[in-house]
Amino acid sequence: MTQATLGARPREWPTARSSRQGILAQFGDGRADLAGWALTTGDPLADAVVEELHSSGHEARAKLHHGIEHGLASVDDPPPGVAALLEQTETAPAYVDDTLLDEASLPFFSAPPPVHIVSLAAGALVRTYQSPSMATVLAMTGRLVDGVPRRLRETGRWVNTAMLPGSLRRGNAGYVATLQVRMMHAHMRRLARRRGYDEAAYGVPVNQVDLARTWMDFTLASYRAEEIMGFPRTSAELASLYRYWSYVGHLLGVDPRLIEGISGHDDAQRVDDLMQAVTGPAIPETAVLAAATLETIAGTLNEVARVPHGMARQALRALARRFHGNTVLDELGLPGGAVTDALLSPAFHAIRIRRNRLRRDRPPGGKPSRPTWPPRANWPGTPRNRRPTSTPPGPVSNSDSPYDDSRRNNGEDHAGHPGSRSHRQARGGHRSE
Asked: 20 to 30 A Cα–Cα from 272, which one of 31, 213, 352, 407?
């Protein structure tokens, strides 16, 4: 994102996203101006690339693909938009170093995969779908409900890939996958506009508020959900994860003023309060998406953890109420379950006690043990340029390349989910710093 864009004055305040007067009274002039700008701004660098892809076709697409995997310097005569995007992504913020790339994500793996599955679905994505603008984009671009299972699989695959130690080095799997997410956002933004998305009501489709709020879903909402389930992290571990996700946000095109400097839940909550205040009320599509998400994950838990489908459904609804509160779940039309909820409390208490005991059970002055998943041999990138030997757990999709929305159901899926074909390509990617 260019400095000129950062200083741009906001356009007319979207009518369905609260009001400037209300935000001004609650948060002050500076934050109201930032929110107004964020509501009316997408990702100019990625949007310019999408226009080049549509005007120049295969050649521009091939150069983008090559540049993402091998770096801007490897691309002969890159289109201006592609060059600008890659220059921005390859210019790492000052806080990015080898320690961040190789170790900052490790606390993520202190919780087992089923916990991540639940926090992703009932925690992060249920909240993402509360956004009327995001739900509207999905409804307009097709496959509102029947696309949910694939979106969940690919979202989980992206998160797991991006969190692998070393994965965010240029050319490695997490870096490639995250830029695919960014480009999919841009394709969806273009498609929604062509199909009559109401910018006067909601602002730019997949705008900076939507991006920052989704970032909060994968950090603040997810990690708090895991705490509720008995898997808390220390303040140092959270600071490490937030710092790592700041770099993920940089690659995703999230404006740094919205997310950088966050080192814990309190910092994140202050930003999230502003994002929530300008999200707007739920619409019918949000309830449809939330219900479909929980139903899909109930099936997944049956597969991976042998939890009966009906029991998993009830447990997920009870968990979602704990994560988001009764008011939100009532708005989404998702029923509660007093009996199921009552059974969860002692289970989580036992998990928390056992986890705390295990985390304390180490030699005096010793460091906490590293997580056992993923195995170190499978980490995709270190200063020694180690190649990956496997990808994170997750089903493989048959999706085609996400670089062009005309090659993947005309782009008619959530902008934030990379295709697994390119994940497989990325496993042998360039390993430069």
From this structure: 352
> Quick check: is 396 in a domain?
yes
Instruction: Say how far apart CA 246 and CA 238 lie, in whole Å.
Output: 12
- Which is more confident, 312 or 193? 193
> How far apart are the C-alpha atoms of 246 and 28, rounded to whole Å?
25
Look up residue 142 and give its two tokens: 């097709």
Residue 88: exposure state from Cβ atoms within 10 A (0-12, 13-18, ≥19): middle
Tokens for 23, please give them. 């935000």
DSSP per-residue codes, 94-148:
TT--HHHHHHTTGGGGGS-HHHHHHIIIIIIIHHHTT-HHHHHHHHHHS-TTTTH
What distance in Å separates the CA atoms of residue 414 and residue 154, rounded to the nearest whole number? 10
Q: What pLDDT was estimated at residue 344?
A: 66
Q: Are 317 and 294 in contact (CB under 8 A)?
A: yes
Contact of 189 with 415, CB cutoff 8 Å:
yes
Whole-number Å distance between alpha carbons of 112 and 301: 13
Q: At 26, give phi and psi (nearest 5°).
A: -85, -35
What is the domain range of residue 74?
Answer: 44-368+376-426
In this structure, the number of other CB atoms found within 10 A of the CB of residue 12 comes to 12
Q: pLDDT (tens digit, 9 = 90+) per residue, 209-233? A: 999 999 999 999 999 999 999 899 9
Question: Is residue 189 a part of any domain in this protein?
Answer: yes
Q: Is 408 helix (H, G, I), strand (E, B) or coil?
A: coil
The amino acid at 355: R
**Largest alpha-carbon pair distance within the chain?**
64
d(CA 89, CA 197): 28
Please count the structural domains in the chain: 1
* Residue 17 within a domain: no
Separation between Cα atoms, residue 178 and residue 249, nearest integer Å: 9
Residue 19 lies in a domain: no
| 39 vs 89: CA distance, rounded Å | 22
